[in-house]
Amino acid sequence: MIREIQEGWDSVVLDVDGEWIVRVPRREEVREWIRREALLLPELASALPVPVPRFEVVEDSDDVFFVAYRKLPGRPLGDPPVSIAAELGRFLVALHSFKTSVEVPRHRDPVDRFLGEVLPLLERDERGRAEAMFQQRLSSSEMVLLHADLGPAHILHEGSSVTGVIDWSDVSFGDPALDFAWLLHGTSAPFGAALLDAYCGEADESLRERALFYHRLGPWHEVLHGLEHDQPELVESGLEGVRARLP
Q: Could you tell me the sign of the dihedral formed by the alpha carbons of 127, 131, 136, 141, in that order?
């Protein structure tokens, strides 16, 4: 039995007989992202304290491209229990300190495009708040290996155990705060406190503030994707998210 389990922006994702996950890129440029995953994941598998996919099939030809791996157990994180925070903190310590031999790009948010294409879709007072948000952005000189899309759909768990971190197509080098965007600002305060305690042993307010900026940017990406690929429903839902997260 073959079932599409999500409508991902970059790949069609299929569940085959409840045992295999197959990913098929939606666009040509996604092939290169998945090729990078195929090189990186074997390195990460032995270095991280949580499981990651192991591509057992990589079909890469002019006419056909897909990857397949055995389905990891667990379900998407959703509203995470505090008991899982320490494990995720240790995972981020290992990831952010990992030195890879794979060529990985630097993370860059398309701020010029946000301002040029998304900002005009907002009301006047919303545009002013958004412009102030971008002007007050904090920066970090620290560059680490990032998952760069660490939301609830990409973290699997069973009870209080992390059973996998999936979809590494956005992996990049950048500010560690990016990986904390949802983990600190889409979860409960006790979860965030326990996560930071396991990661750095203290409440890092600069990291929190930078993570909040990245969290606020999430819907901007959604709007831009909807504009690029003629998906007005994403533009609409993205703009709702932009408005809801404006300071």
A: positive
Distance of CA 233 to CAs 26, 116, 163, 224, Å? Answer: 18, 20, 32, 12
- The type of residue at 77 is L
CATH of 2-70, one of 3.30.200.20, 3.40.50.1400, 3.50.50.60, 3.90.105.10: 3.30.200.20
pTM of the shown model: 0.94
C-alpha 92/C-alpha 25 separation (Å) is 27
Give the pairing of strands 65-70 and 20-25: antiparallel
Question: In Å, how far from its chain's centre is CA 134?
Answer: 21
Superfamily of domain 75-245: Aminoglycoside phosphotransferase (APH), C-terminal lobe (3.90.1200.10)
| pLDDT tens digits for range 199-244 | 988 767 899 999 999 999 999 999 999 999 999 999 999 999 999 9
Work out whether strand 11-16 and strand 2-7 pair parallel, antiparallel, or are unpaired: antiparallel
